[in-house]
Amino acid sequence: MPDSPSTADALPASAGSITDVPGVRVGQVTRRGDGWLTGVTVVLPPPGTVGGVDVRGGGPGTHETDALDPRTLVPTVDAVVLTGGSAYGLVTAHGVQRWCAEQGRGFRVGPGAGEVVPIVPAAAVFDLGRGGRFTAHPDEATGYEAAVAAASPDGTTVRRGVVGAGTGALVGRRFKGGVGTASLRLDGAEEGVVVAALVVVNAAGLPMPPGATGPSPPLGRSPALNTTIGVVATDAGLDPAEVSRTATTAHDGLARALDPVHTMSDGDTLFALATGARALPSERAARVASLVRVQAAAAEVVRRAVLDGLLAAEPVMVDGLEFPVWPGG
Amino acid sequence: MPDSPSTADALPASAGSITDVPGVRVGQVTRRGDGWLTGVTVVLPPPGTVGGVDVRGGGPGTHETDALDPRTLVPTVDAVVLTGGSAYGLVTAHGVQRWCAEQGRGFRVGPGAGEVVPIVPAAAVFDLGRGGRFTAHPDEATGYEAAVAAASPDGTTVRRGVVGAGTGALVGRRFKGGVGTASLRLDGAEEGVVVAALVVVNAAGLPMPPGATGPSPPLGRSPALNTTIGVVATDAGLDPAEVSRTATTAHDGLARALDPVHTMSDGDTLFALATGARALPSERAARVASLVRVQAAAAEVVRRAVLDGLLAAEPVMVDGLEFPVWPGG
Q1: Minimal Cα–Cα distance from B85 to chain A, Å?
Q2: pLDDT of res. B204
Q3: CB of B105 within 8 Å of any CB in chain A?
């Protein structure tokens, strides 16, 4: 269960998860061994969920992000895919799309049962070759399998660490990264609203521990592509522009957790989802005040989720070489 | 061969093609009959080509467009995919990506022969169900086949009309659309520079004939998704920001050829490619003057390519129902 915002400066052993947002489910597929060290994580929100995205890194690998611009026709998102495999891995979005179409989930374009176009945006992390084989990247069927997992009874529980799209993730080029998640339940005027995040931490930057104020030691030559990608979700009712702004604010959680981040060698991308179960005030001043609190919470859950992903990671051995865990944990 | 800019107000019978840009090749696969009316068009530029994009429609279906932002790490594009099948058809980009990887084309991320990540952005037009079967959309193998066609001896010739990604295209909800292409060879300070376009015309709007000044008759209920997508290419040397601006300017060719366009029911997306074979002046004022002429030509070739696509289209019968050609042709 999520804790309260008053504990924001301490990192609890378990900080809740993105599935604390009612109706949000997660499915993960992990491919390890025999050259593989990669996977896929799917976030499956309830029908009618409004989506947005902010791409802030210099090396993004993304799919269907333009459809999430608030100036476009379709405000809803059927699933979000986070994947390993760099641009090759984006094909997993089509497996998730196939699953959604079979379920009749998608933007309706005709009267027939299957006449839908599922909106399944995706972002990828670079992990090519980390398991030993460059071509061992997730395929369309892996995406389908992750969607099935999200819809299964296990879809309300989030595994963390070396799992799903975090399987091949590293931080600071040598420490094991992974999947992290966190949630907060708001009080006051937004009593009961849940704001949560799931991230895949694959950053060039090193973590800034809670309370740290200075930068991490400078890095040497940056790797080709490093990326933290993730999803922020809430049950608050946000319109497309508000949910896009929430994705923007959420990137501040990356800035507070990792240094450096958002550089040319990162592909940092965050999606935001609003299920709309809990309406925010419609009166403008009260609404803006509520949005500020929801968006500030979005940054905080991203910060916590990054640290959660590092704390949950375990060392991984590949061909006798160890990727250790971050010693700051 | 391209004609000169001085004939800009008249539409020649053949207005040149995008393969007039040295090194640019086109491959198209057409799927017609037995429920199918769709296809794929691949534009394959020479290695080192710089790419940009501008997404201006309200219902875009796109892939890997964020990587083309001029603020990102990788300035080059390995291929551009235009496809039918709406968001389902974007999977064809992965077939083209597979072909590029086999050829060693892509952004290098390691020392091994195949250690590349091909940058293959894509955009889709909505043609689902137009051949009679909603699920008859192009797949990964169709994309691969189109890449092979682009690299074949036929890749220097562009078929127009009801072909490739234009196979299922319509304009004004009832007239047959298709693939069109055009080119211009500049003179003066940009002597010999070629600017060319290939577009897939699938617009809600009706064509504005050359010289028309008023709007077309208002449309009734807009269809779900209509889209004109395309590629502008030049052999001028443009940097990533300049090529992105060129994509923006090129959209004015759509505004001059179609009305309405760029609305919530369109997914209009144009890519721009600069092979860099012909350097523009480096002195700032002269360079800006050259850019203005290249970019104005980009808008003009898009306008001509749209009209070319309509003129090249032929009527198509599906289940006894005819999609006629545009009578203005």
Answers
A1: 10
A2: 79
A3: no
Distance CA A310, CA A318 (A): 19
**Is B112 at the interface with chain A, CB within 8 A?**
yes
Of A59, A88, A134, the CB nearest to B72: A59
Closest by CA to A129, choosing from A269, A323, A280, A286, is A323
How close B260 gets to chain A, by Cα (Å)? Answer: 16
Q: Answer for the pair A63, A88: CB distance below 8 angstroms, yes or no.
A: no
Indicate the domain borders of chain A: 21-314
Which of B66, B118, B128 has its CB closest to that of A60? Answer: B66
CA angle B263, B267, B271 (to 5 degrees): 120
CA distances from B307 to A197, B161, B266 (A): 48, 11, 18
ipTM for this prediction: 0.87
A109·B128 Cβ contact <8 A: yes
CATH code of B21-314, in short, is: 3.60.70.12
The verdict on B61 touching A (C-beta cutoff 8 Å) is yes
- Whether A73 and B119 lie within 8 Å, measured CB to CB: no
**For residue range A229-284, what is the model confidence (pLDDT) as tens digits?**
999 999 999 999 999 999 999 999 999 999 888 988 888 999 999 999 999 999 99
Which residues 174-193 of chain B have a CB within 8 Å of chain A? Answer: none
Report residue A114's pLDDT band, with 50, 70 and 90 as the boundaries. confident
Decide if B62 and A65 are in contact by the 8 Å CB cutoff: yes
Return the HEC string of chain B.
CCECHHHCCCCCCCCCCHHHCCCCEEEEEEEEECCEEEEEEEEECCCCCEEEEEECCCCCCEECCHHHCCCCCCCECCCEEEECCHHHHCCHHHHHHHHHHHCCCCEECCCCCCCEECCCCEEECCCCCCCCCCCCCCCHHHHHHHHHHHHCHHHHCCCCECCHHHCCCEECCCEECEEEEEEEECCHHHCCCEEEEEEEEECCCEECCCCCCCCCCCCCCCCCCEEEEEEEEEEECCCHHHHHHHHHHHHHHHHHHEECCCCCCECCEEEEEEEEEECCCCCHHHHHHHHHHHHHHHHHHHHHHHHHHHHHCCCEEECCEEECCCCCC
**B66 shares contact with chain A (CB less than 8 Å):** yes
Quote the pLDDT of residue B327. Answer: 84
Alpha-carbon distance of B306 to B181, in angstroms, equals 7
pLDDT (0 to 100) of residue A108:
92
- Interface size between A and B, measured as CB pairs under 8 A: 132
Tell me which chain B residues have a C-beta less than 8 angstroms from the C-beta of A128: 109-110, 115, 117
Query: What 3-state class would DSSP assign to A119?
Result: coil
Taking only the tens place, the pLDDT of each residue in B103-128 is 999 999 988 888 999 999 999 999 99
Q: How far apart are CA A20 and CA A10, in angstroms?
A: 20
